[in-house]
TrEMBL record:
Any Gene Ontology biological process: mRNA splicing, via spliceosome
Compartments, record wording: Nucleus
Residue ranges of domain RRM in the record: 117-196
Primary location group: nucleus
Highest taxon above the source species: Eukaryota
Coiled coil: none
Low complexity bias (residue ranges): 290-302
Protein name: U1 small nuclear ribonucleoprotein of 70kDa MW N terminal family protein
PANTHER family the UniProt entry points to: U1 SMALL NUCLEAR RIBONUCLEOPROTEIN 70 KD, U1 SMALL NUCLEAR RIBONUCLEOPROTEIN 70 KDA
GO MF entries: mRNA binding; U1 snRNA binding
Assigned keywords, A-Z: Nucleus, Ribonucleoprotein, RNA-binding
SMART domains: RRM
C-alpha cells in the first residue's frame, strides 16, 4: 500500500503521522519469584482460643447484660399467632376426619342408620328428653330410635335425631314441620333432613359450611383441640347402637321437598302529616327451588 498523503495539505498530513512509542516505566512491585513475604497461616490454630472464649468469657458477658422485659404488644402478637396456629391445626385435622371414607363407613355400621329415615331436630330445649320428643312425633309413624346429642357431662347439646321405621313417615314429618317447626317447652324446634349424608360435599358449620347460626352469637375463633371431624356422642343406651343393614346405600331414594321461607318484608312508615291508622299486616313471600333448600325456616318467628 503506497503512502499518498503527500498530495494532501499539511494540516491533513498531520493526521496520518504515527504516534510516538509508549514510554517504558519500571514496575513498582517485586516480581513474584523474588518476593519474600510471610505465608498465610490456617484458622485452625485459633480454634482453641475460640472455644475457650465461648465456654468461659461469653456466658459471663451475657449474664451482665440486662434483658429488657417483653412489651405488652409483643405478648399479644405471640398469643395471637399461637391461637391462629392452634385453630389452623384443629381445622385441618377435623377436615381430614370428615373426609375420611373409612371413618364414615365405620360410623354407619356401628352407630348411624338409614339417612332417608332419619329426621334432624335442632334448637331443642335443654330439659327435653327422648320421652318428651317421642310423645309428639309418634303420630307420624312408628319410631325406631331417638337420640339427643349430649356432652361428656350428660347435658343436652340442643339437637338430636329421630329414626322412623318407614321412609314415608320421615318424609311426611319433614314436609309438614320444616316450614313452621313445632313449639315444645317455650322453644320452637327446627325440623330438617340429615344433610350430612343426603347432600354431597356437605360440611358442618364448624368446618365452614352449614346453614345455622344466629347474628347475635359470636363465633369461636379457636376450635376445640378435642373436637373430631365426625363426633359421635349418642345419649341412648348401647342397645340402640346396633349394626345397620345399610339398605340406603343401594337403590334410588326420592329427595325431600323442603320449602324455604324468606324474612317478612317490613311495611314502609306512613307519610308525613298523614293520620296513623291501624297497622297493616305483614306480607310474606315464599318460593320453592330445586337446589337451594334451607333449614332456616323459623328464625323469624323466634
Amino acid at each position: 500500500m503506497t503512502d499518498d498523503s503527500s498530495k494532501y495539505p499539511p494540516d491533513i498530513q498531520k493526521l496520518f503521522q504515527p504516534k510516538p512509542p509508549i514510554v517504558h516505566i519500571p514496575p513498582t512491585d517485586y516480581p513474584p519469584e523474588k518476593r519474600s513475604t510471610l505465608s498465610i497461616s490456617p484458622v485452625s490454630n485459633y480454634k482453641s482460643f475460640i472455644k475457650k472464649y465461648v465456654d468461659n468469657e461469653l456466658p459471663q458477658r451475657e449474664s451482665r447484660v440486662q434483658k429488657t422485659a417483653m412489651s405488652k404488644h409483643r405478648q399479644k402478637l405471640l398469643l395471637a399467632n399461637d391461637r391462629r396456629k392452634k385453630q389452623s391445626d384443629s381445622f385441618n385435622r377435623q377436615m381430614r376426619d370428615w373426609n375420611d371414607p373409612e371413618l364414615l363407613a365405620k360410623n354407619e355400621n356401628e352407630v348411624m342408620k338409614d339417612p332417608y329415615k332419619t329426621v334432624f331436630i335442632a334448637r331443642l330445649d335443654y330439659t327435653l328428653t327422648e320421652l318428651d320428643i317421642s310423645q309428639y312425633f309418634r303420630k307420624y309413624g312408628v319410631i325406631d330410635s331417638i337420640s339427643i346429642i349430649r356432652d361428656h357431662n350428660g347435658r343436652s347439646r340442643g339437637y338430636g335425631f329421630i329414626v322412623f321405621e318407614r321412609e314415608a313417615d320421615a318424609q311426611a314429618c319433614i314436609s309438614e314441620l320444616s316450614r313452621t317447626g313445632v313449639k315444645m317447652k317455650e322453644r320452637t324446634i327446627l325440623v330438617d333432613i340429615e344433610r350430612s349424608r343426603v347432600w354431597r360435599n356437605w360440611k358442618p358449620r364448624r368446618l365452614g359450611g352449614g346453614l345455622g347460626g344466629r347474628d347475635y352469637v359470636k363465633e369461636g375463633r379457636v376450635a376445640s383441640a378435642a373436637a373430631s371431624g365426625r363426633r359421635i356422642h349418642i345419649a341412648n343406651s348401647s342397645t340402640s347402637h346396633y349394626k345397620s343393614d345399610n339398605s340406603h346405600k343401594s337403590g334410588s331414594h326420592p329427595h325431600y321437598n323442603v320449602t324455604t321461607h324468606t324474612r317478612p318484608i317490613a311495611m314502609p312508615p306512613p307519610a308525613k302529616y298523614e293520620p296513623i291508622s291501624a297497622p297493616k299486616p305483614y306480607s310474606y313471600t315464599s318460593g320453592q327451588t330445586s337446589s337451594g333448600r334451607s333449614i332456616r325456616s323459623i328464625r323469624g318467628g323466634e
